[in-house]
Amino acid sequence: MYRKVLIPLDGSELAECALPEVMNLARGGVVGEVVLLNVVDIPSLWVAEGLDIMKLKDALLEKAQEYLSDVQSRLSKEGLNVIDVVMEGKTAQTIIDYSREQAVDLIVLATHGYTGMKQLMFGSVALRVLHDARVPVLLIRPESCR
Predict the structure, then answer these.
(1) pLDDT confidence of 118, banded at 50, 70, 90?
(2) For the CA atoms of 27, 31, 35, 41, what is the dihedral angle to 10 degrees?
(3) Are the C-beta atoms of 35 and 26 separated by less than 8 Å?
(4) How far apart are CA 142 and CA 43, in angstroms?
(5) Which positions ≥6 away from 6 have C-beta within 8 Å?
(6) 122 vs 34, 51, 61, 97, 135, CA distance in Å?
(7) 0.85 cut: is pTM over it?
(8) Region 37-52: what's the mean pLDDT?
Protein backbone atom coordinates (compact mmCIF):
# COMPACT_ATOMS: atom_id res chain seq x y z
CA MET A 1 0.00 0.00 0.00
CA TYR A 2 1.11 3.54 -0.73
CA ARG A 3 0.41 5.46 2.48
CA LYS A 4 1.20 8.84 0.92
CA VAL A 5 0.97 9.60 -2.81
CA LEU A 6 2.28 12.91 -4.15
CA ILE A 7 0.72 14.47 -7.25
CA PRO A 8 2.54 17.58 -8.47
CA LEU A 9 0.15 19.84 -10.39
CA ASP A 10 0.91 23.00 -12.33
CA GLY A 11 -2.64 24.05 -13.13
CA SER A 12 -2.63 22.53 -16.60
CA GLU A 13 -5.02 20.01 -18.08
CA LEU A 14 -2.02 17.85 -18.92
CA ALA A 15 -0.86 17.68 -15.29
CA GLU A 16 -4.33 16.56 -14.25
CA CYS A 17 -3.90 13.45 -16.41
CA ALA A 18 -2.35 11.94 -13.27
CA LEU A 19 -5.61 12.23 -11.31
CA PRO A 20 -7.61 9.39 -12.94
CA GLU A 21 -4.70 7.00 -12.42
CA VAL A 22 -4.51 7.86 -8.73
CA MET A 23 -8.28 7.46 -8.40
CA ASN A 24 -7.97 3.99 -9.95
CA LEU A 25 -5.26 3.10 -7.45
CA ALA A 26 -7.41 4.41 -4.61
CA ARG A 27 -10.40 2.35 -5.74
CA GLY A 28 -8.11 -0.66 -5.58
CA GLY A 29 -7.38 0.12 -1.95
CA VAL A 30 -3.67 0.84 -2.39
CA VAL A 31 -3.67 4.59 -1.62
CA GLY A 32 -3.92 6.15 1.81
CA GLU A 33 -3.41 9.89 1.62
CA VAL A 34 -3.08 11.97 -1.54
CA VAL A 35 -0.99 15.15 -1.48
CA LEU A 36 -1.56 17.71 -4.22
CA LEU A 37 1.50 19.92 -4.64
CA ASN A 38 1.76 23.12 -6.65
CA VAL A 39 5.18 24.76 -6.85
CA VAL A 40 5.33 28.46 -7.62
CA ASP A 41 8.62 29.25 -9.34
CA ILE A 42 9.41 32.98 -9.48
CA PRO A 43 11.87 33.52 -12.35
CA SER A 44 14.93 35.53 -11.31
CA LEU A 45 14.47 37.59 -14.50
CA TRP A 46 11.41 39.19 -12.91
CA VAL A 47 13.58 40.61 -10.14
CA ALA A 48 15.90 42.16 -12.73
CA GLU A 49 12.92 43.71 -14.50
CA GLY A 50 12.06 45.71 -11.38
CA LEU A 51 8.64 44.13 -10.94
CA ASP A 52 6.89 44.22 -7.59
CA ILE A 53 7.92 40.67 -6.74
CA MET A 54 6.07 40.46 -3.42
CA LYS A 55 2.78 41.50 -4.97
CA LEU A 56 3.28 39.15 -7.90
CA LYS A 57 4.36 36.28 -5.66
CA ASP A 58 1.34 36.74 -3.39
CA ALA A 59 -0.98 36.71 -6.40
CA LEU A 60 0.61 33.54 -7.79
CA LEU A 61 0.48 31.78 -4.42
CA GLU A 62 -3.18 32.75 -3.98
CA LYS A 63 -4.07 31.53 -7.46
CA ALA A 64 -2.24 28.23 -6.82
CA GLN A 65 -4.09 27.74 -3.53
CA GLU A 66 -7.47 28.39 -5.15
CA TYR A 67 -6.66 25.90 -7.92
CA LEU A 68 -5.55 23.18 -5.51
CA SER A 69 -8.56 23.72 -3.27
CA ASP A 70 -10.79 23.12 -6.28
CA VAL A 71 -8.97 19.90 -7.21
CA GLN A 72 -8.98 18.77 -3.57
CA SER A 73 -12.73 19.28 -3.41
CA ARG A 74 -13.28 17.20 -6.55
CA LEU A 75 -11.13 14.34 -5.27
CA SER A 76 -12.62 14.43 -1.78
CA LYS A 77 -16.07 13.99 -3.31
CA GLU A 78 -14.72 10.75 -4.80
CA GLY A 79 -13.83 9.55 -1.30
CA LEU A 80 -10.09 10.22 -1.35
CA ASN A 81 -8.22 11.57 1.66
CA VAL A 82 -6.59 14.65 0.11
CA ILE A 83 -4.46 17.53 1.33
CA ASP A 84 -3.07 20.38 -0.73
CA VAL A 85 0.27 22.13 -0.43
CA VAL A 86 1.57 25.24 -2.19
CA MET A 87 5.30 25.92 -2.07
CA GLU A 88 7.71 28.36 -3.63
CA GLY A 89 10.91 27.16 -5.28
CA LYS A 90 12.43 25.46 -8.28
CA THR A 91 9.82 22.96 -9.41
CA ALA A 92 11.72 19.68 -9.77
CA GLN A 93 13.91 20.21 -6.72
CA THR A 94 10.96 21.23 -4.56
CA ILE A 95 9.04 18.09 -5.57
CA ILE A 96 12.05 15.91 -4.75
CA ASP A 97 12.73 17.64 -1.43
CA TYR A 98 9.07 17.49 -0.38
CA SER A 99 8.87 13.78 -1.19
CA ARG A 100 11.92 13.10 1.00
CA GLU A 101 10.91 15.34 3.90
CA GLN A 102 7.31 14.15 4.04
CA ALA A 103 7.90 10.39 3.63
CA VAL A 104 6.04 10.13 0.33
CA ASP A 105 5.71 6.55 -0.95
CA LEU A 106 4.86 7.26 -4.60
CA ILE A 107 5.02 10.26 -6.94
CA VAL A 108 2.52 10.36 -9.82
CA LEU A 109 2.99 13.03 -12.46
CA ALA A 110 2.20 13.68 -16.07
CA THR A 111 4.92 14.27 -18.61
CA HIS A 112 4.76 16.37 -21.74
CA GLY A 113 6.44 13.55 -23.59
CA TYR A 114 9.15 15.75 -25.08
CA THR A 115 12.06 13.95 -26.67
CA GLY A 116 15.25 14.95 -28.45
CA MET A 117 15.86 18.67 -28.92
CA LYS A 118 12.62 19.76 -27.27
CA GLN A 119 13.60 17.92 -24.11
CA LEU A 120 17.06 19.48 -24.18
CA MET A 121 15.69 22.98 -24.77
CA PHE A 122 12.76 22.92 -22.37
CA GLY A 123 14.19 20.55 -19.78
CA SER A 124 11.97 18.11 -18.05
CA VAL A 125 10.64 18.30 -14.53
CA ALA A 126 9.41 14.72 -14.91
CA LEU A 127 12.83 13.46 -16.01
CA ARG A 128 14.59 15.19 -13.13
CA VAL A 129 12.08 13.84 -10.60
CA LEU A 130 12.37 10.36 -12.09
CA HIS A 131 16.16 10.52 -11.88
CA ASP A 132 16.53 12.04 -8.41
CA ALA A 133 13.53 10.78 -6.41
CA ARG A 134 14.16 8.07 -3.85
CA VAL A 135 10.68 6.61 -4.21
CA PRO A 136 8.82 5.07 -7.14
CA VAL A 137 7.66 7.55 -9.79
CA LEU A 138 4.69 6.81 -12.02
CA LEU A 139 4.83 8.88 -15.21
CA ILE A 140 1.60 9.45 -17.10
CA ARG A 141 2.06 10.07 -20.82
CA PRO A 142 -0.13 12.71 -22.48
CA GLU A 143 -1.55 10.11 -24.89
CA SER A 144 -3.32 8.42 -21.97
CA CYS A 145 -5.57 11.47 -21.55
CA ARG A 146 -6.80 11.69 -25.09
Answers:
(1) very low
(2) -90
(3) no
(4) 26
(5) 35, 37, 95, 98, 99, 102, 104, 106, 107, 108
(6) 28, 24, 23, 22, 24
(7) yes
(8) 76
